[in-house]
Specification:
By secondary structure, the protein is α/β, with parallel strands linked by helices. Helices cover 48% and strands 11% of the residues. Strands 3-2-1-4-7-5-8 form a seven-stranded mixed sheet, with helices on both faces. Strands 6-9 form a two-stranded parallel ribbon.
Length: 438
């Protein structure tokens, strides 16, 4: 998993200004491999649609993934005949590699891509890129799984697509609905910061990019699309599915260990009410309280299960101490990552040590409660013990949050002034390297 440093904190989103004549606002990339049959029809149809409906200058870029048929000749012919069409030749296959190569070198402020088979209705193209042009969103995707999407495809592909979506939601907590639809767009400054973190060069490229963007807090806009399956698609379903599952495991492991610097993708939101200074309320307190309560609830359930299990093999004090120790370790790790947003391994041992001190305080509260119960009642019922422990844990939870916030995970960051937004400067067109970008 890559850990390259990205350019840094993203600027505030702004509506793209009108550009000089001939400067493309949108660059639509069409990655192809041995598509001599459909390439000409696709490019001409896309050009005609954009010229008729798109109010800004545009460019269509053909990204040839080491084709061995007549695709390179057709691409070169189209580029020579039409000023708004360019062709890039890569000597290595991979849709992700093609997109990274072209997007990294493009001067257009909005970058998109679509499949050559034109499975997606082109009427969705303007709704796809409009939120990026207006500054509302960072990325945009077409969704075939939206309730209002109209899709024509066989039951096999429908099942695979929905099963893959469930896997992403269950394993990576993805909230977007369709990772693999070949119809996406991204703002250029976002691509420049995000692409160095994306490792995959094949079909999993889309999923990895979206998961990292979502985890970094970037805004993803979804557009329902009308989509008709291409029966002649060359995608190898089994091999692609296997590679995707490997990618899910790799990305999930990287997110769990905190090895990705996603904080570098932070973007100021300007008028977002969450960023406004509120008198007498510490910044982030509401979000931290919600996260802490969720983690605390799960930890309490985990603790009670452990206590009930250990109680079958020993006394109440020993069962309480062991269950509280294990749940405290899990609680500190979860709060570190989810509640207080501490990423990476730096300081993890110190945080766990401080968490154990907090655990000792909780142990004193709960053990003291059990001791008081046993002193007051000879042989109390198991249900009574559980009730007393729940009350004691609630008190310990409040104290734990205060200690976590003020001592274990204090926010020592000095607020950095947000620079005044400036109009983006559009670089002169650069030559795209056609070798392996990695």
């Amino acid at each position: 998993m890559r850990t390259d440093s990205s350019p840094g904190t993203l600027p505030a989103r702004e509506h793209l200004p009108a550009t000089a004549a001939g400067t493309p606002v949108l660059d639509v990339v069409i990655p192809v491999y041995n598509e001599e049959k459909d390439l000409r029809r696709c490019v001409l149809g896309l050009r005609e649609h954009l010229a008729r409906t798109f109010p800004y200058a545009f460019r269509v870029t053909i990204a040839d993934n080491a084709s061995t048929d007549g695709t390179p000749l057709i691409a070169a012919e189209l580029a020579a005949r039409h000023a708004d069409v360019t062709s890039v030749r890569l000597e290595h296959k991979g849709r992700g590699r093609a997109l990274r190569t072209v997007w990294s070198a493009s001067d257009a402020p909005v970058l998109a891509y679509m499949d050559v088979d034109l499975s997606t209705d082109l009427n969705a193209l303007l709704p796809l890129v409009a939120p990026l042009i207006s500054g509302h969103s960072d990325l945009a995707i077409g969704s075939r799984l939206s309730r209002t999407a109209r899709v024509v495809r066989g039951p096999k592909r429908e099942f695979i697509s929905r099963a893959y979506n469930l896997i992403l939601r269950g394993s990576l907590q993805a909230r977007f609905s369709d990772a693999q639809c070949g119809f996406k767009a991204i703002r250029r400054e976002v691509a420049q910061a995000l692409l160095p973190l994306v490792e995959d060069t094949g079909w999993f490229f889309d999923t990895e990019m979206l998961v990292l963007a979502e985890r970094a807090g970037l805004r993803i806009h979804e557009v329902p699309v009308d989509w008709v399956d291409d029966p002649d698609s060359t995608v190898r379903i089994v091999r692609t599915a296997t590679d995707d599952l490997k990618g899910v495991w790799r990305v999930g492991r990287a997110l769990t260990t905190g090895s990705l610097p996603l904080d570098r993708l932070a973007r100021p939101f300007g008028d977002d009410p969450r960023d406004r200074e509120i008198t007498d309320v510490p910044k982030g307190l509401a979000r931290q309280l919600v996260g802490f309560c969720v983690v605390g609830g799960l930890s309490t359930l985990f603790y009670l299960l452990l206590y009930s299990l250990f109680r079958q093999f020993g006394g109440s004090q020993a069962a309480n101490a062991l269950a509280l120790l294990l749940s405290a370790l899990a609680n500190t790790a979860a709060n570190r990552r989810l509640t207080f947003g501490v990423r990476g391994r730096g300081g993890a041992v110190r945080h766990q040590a401080q968490g154990l001190v907090v655990f000792a305080i909780g142990l004193a509260l709960t053990s003291g409660s059990l001791a008081a119960l046993n002193a007051a009642t000879a042989g109390p019922a198991h249900s009574t013990e559980i009730a007393v422990l729940v009350v004691a844990n609630l008190a310990a939870t409040v104290l734990r949050f205060l200690l976590f916030r003020a001592w274990v995970f204090p926010d020592r960051r000095d607020p950095a002034p947000v620079p005044a937004p400036t109009a983006p400067a559009y670089a002169e067109p650069t030559t795209i390297s056609t070798g392996d970008p990695r």
